[in-house]
Transporter (Bombus terrestris), 607 residues
Amino acid sequence: MENIYLEGKGNDEKSKGEPDVQQVTSENSPSRVEWGGGLEFLMACIAASVGLGNVWRFPFTAYENGGGAFLIPYIIVLFFVGKPFYFLEGFLGQFTSKSCAKTWAMVPAMKGLGYGQAIAAFSIVTCYGGLMSLTLYYLVASFQSELPWSFCREEWKDQCIDTVSKDVNRSTRLLHNDDRTLRSSAELYFRKIVLNEYDSIEDGIGTPSWELCLGLFVTWATIFCILCRGVKSTGKAAYFLAIFPYFVMIALLVRAVTLEGAANGILFFITPDWNKLWQSSVWYAAITQCFFSLSICFGPILTYSSYNNFGHNIRRDVMIVTTLDTFTSLIAGCTIFGILGNLAHEMGTTDISKVVRGGTGLAFISYPEALSQFQVVPQLFAVLFFVMMFVLGIGSAVALSSAVFNILCDHFPNVKNWKLVLIVSIIGYIISLVYITPGGQWFITLVDYYGGTFVAIIVAVLEIATIFWIYGLSNFLNDAEFMLGSRPSFYWRLCWVVIAPLLMIFILICTIVTYESPTYDGVPFPDYAYGIGWFLLFLGVVAIVGCILQKLVQLRSSSLIETVKAAFRPSEEKWGPLDPKIRLEWKEFVAEKKFRHRGGCVEAFLK
């Protein structure tokens, strides 16, 4: 028997005191609000997708994978995997007006996809919490009369080179003696002062400083304040979260490219190494970076689009956001590699890959390095930059947290929203403490690999399988035509059905076959750390497998084949538009389409 949905009063008249928010209400679920307008959704998506994934993660991923050797696979993946997935998740959310867990109930056995997405999202958002705590530390330090990372301290002696007044002769001498000895004052400040970083975590990860704990509290308090009123407050905050960062990024880019030696660094970034294009690890890094940059396969885009009006032009927004995301990544890349080129010039080397240690801390080394180069009020630019970093982090964290929060709302509809957000924030704060310890950067690397990227690519493959191989391409195209007014073009169909799944499956298999345990700056993790990483991966996968097994047991019969068919049979009861009037029109449209077009999958793909 189908669910009966009642149209909420908010669809026809605006709620008192909240003139820009609409509601759609179902009989058995809490009210579903909508964005105050299409621009709010666009700004929220920009804030979610154009965030730390671009400014923090993209540069160090490109640096670790050879600069230009990574850029070409990344752009290819963006066009044939990233954009189609963004459109797909945006469509699913807008079509169903449901959270990621309820959307995947379209195929009963695959409901666990939503939980897998939420686990990956929460793993990443706790890492972001730690990074934003570091950002606040730098923000406060930027108010000093002399930027504290711009000069060498006495105890660093011959290991250090000032970021402002560099002794080129000493730099060259030390570099020739031992190219691992010389470090910029910005790098040493980050590793020795801010983190007090351990060389190994064999004996534990240490305890965080009170300054970083306080910064972490401010971070999660900010996330709580934005999320506690749901989409109403998220939409309003999105305007600032999306627009402000670009002013600072462009100013920093202009300064970076005018530094001496910057051209060599940028050439390293844009010049491809064709031999590396055959390495599966580079393509794996490109796919996972694409997921991070766009926030796809983690739940936020599906969640945000579920608050759209059914007739919203989602295709237009997809093109705007994905194009802007690419533009932002290129800005961040040129900025970072311009700075690295300047560092290489000052150190008397042409090998950009040896200038600094790679890894998750690269952004906290290279960006401060550039800020120190400003001749006029560098403190002002430092303050603006770290405010920007914090804003970008909040935009990403709010989006990822919303995916987790909405699933909790589905399971606890009678609990007030602010209480659920408070629970998420408290748990997030406690877990994030790990990432601000002296061994925290080790665990950010570990969680990024196992809890984020690995889970995301598994979820992505299963998403494609669920929609196009189980629910059916023809059915999906009918739904898309009903909502959008026309069928998705051949480009979208080719990417969804052929290019994206084959590319991801091939790269996933190659990655598994050639698997090498992740390291931090070339140093392997202790066994207990790898155990934690595999446990995070297990959590994401078991959520999916567990739901499949639960549905098979629930629908078991004397025939195994019939049981499997029943578990994976698309659910007409739980799939479709939420609004009852639109739902009825959709059913009539689909019935007519199926009667008129019985050509099957091949005809649906080509037509």
